Each structure stands twice: as structure tokens, then as C-alpha cells.
Amino acid sequence: MAEANIEVQVCHALPDSSFLRSLKVPAGATIEQALALSGLLQDIPGIDLAVNMVGIYGKKKPLDTILREHDRVEVYRPLQADPKEARRRRAGGKPAKG
């Protein structure tokens, strides 16, 4: 009996482009295996899985997470600015409400 395959998507967004690929992986495949099979790491060589966080539908997950049918594996870029600091800068020029 042949091993069942599941369909997943792998995506990564860049400032000026994006990578989105649907693929079939063996049931029981991990995030790391799906990334390797997708070709993402070859198409975008700057990705370092030791640095870039990964997740499924916006929730961070470890590379050894087992995938389920229709999961969307996402590779996140490092933050360019600290969100708290950016918020302070935006609020700095506005008078306090009261």
C-alpha cells in the first residue's frame, strides 16, 4: 500500500515579492522537510532556518512539527524595527488625549 500524501503550502514574503508554492508531501512530513521539498531555500538563498522563525497560519512552530492536510508553512523575516520603539516614535509628535 502506498504512503498517503497531504497537500500543504509554503510561503515567504519579501518587501518586493513573495514565494507561494503548493506541494504534496508524505503524511507525517515535518515543516523542515516541506521547506526542503518546496525549493524555497534554493530560490531565496538568504533564508537561514537557524535565524528565521517558521510557523503555520501565523503561529510560531518548531521545524520538527508534523504537518496536517492544507497547512500553510510560513517563513518569517526578522523584524526591521522594534514594534514598541516604532510605536513610541509615531506617538512622540502627537499631543496627549485627555
CATH topology call: Ubiquitin-like (UB roll)
Task: Kindly provide the name of the CATH class.
Answer: Alpha Beta
Give the total of domains.
Answer: 1
Shape: elongated
| Whole-angstrom Rg | 18 Å
Task: Please count the beta strands (DSSP E, at least 2 residues each).
Answer: 5
- What is the CA-CA span between the terminal residues? 70 Å
The overall average pLDDT, rounded, is 87
Q: Low-confidence stretches at least 5 residues in length (pLDDT < 50)?
A: none
Largest sheet: 5 strands, mixed
Structural class designation:
alpha+beta
Order of helices and strands: EEHHEEEH
CATH architecture: Roll
Kindly describe this structure.
The protein is α+β, with helices and mostly antiparallel strands and 98 residues long. It has a single domain, classed as Ubiquitin-like (UB roll). The chain contains three helices and five strands. It has helices at 31-38, 40-43, 83-92, and strands at 5-13, 18-26, 54-56, 59-60, 72-75. Strands 2-1-5-3-4 form a five-stranded mixed sheet, covered by helices on one side. Strand 1 and strand 2 form a beta hairpin.
Can you give keywords for this protein?
5-stranded mixed sheet, alpha+beta, Ubiquitin-like (UB roll), 98 residues
What's the short version?
With 98 residues, the chain is an alpha+beta fold. 22% of the residues lie in helices and 28% in strands.
Topology:
Blueprint: E1 5-13, E2 18-26, H1 31-38, H2 40-43, E3 54-56, E4 59-60, E5 72-75, H3 83-92
Parallel strand pairs: 1-5
Antiparallel strand pairs: 1-2, 3-4, 3-5
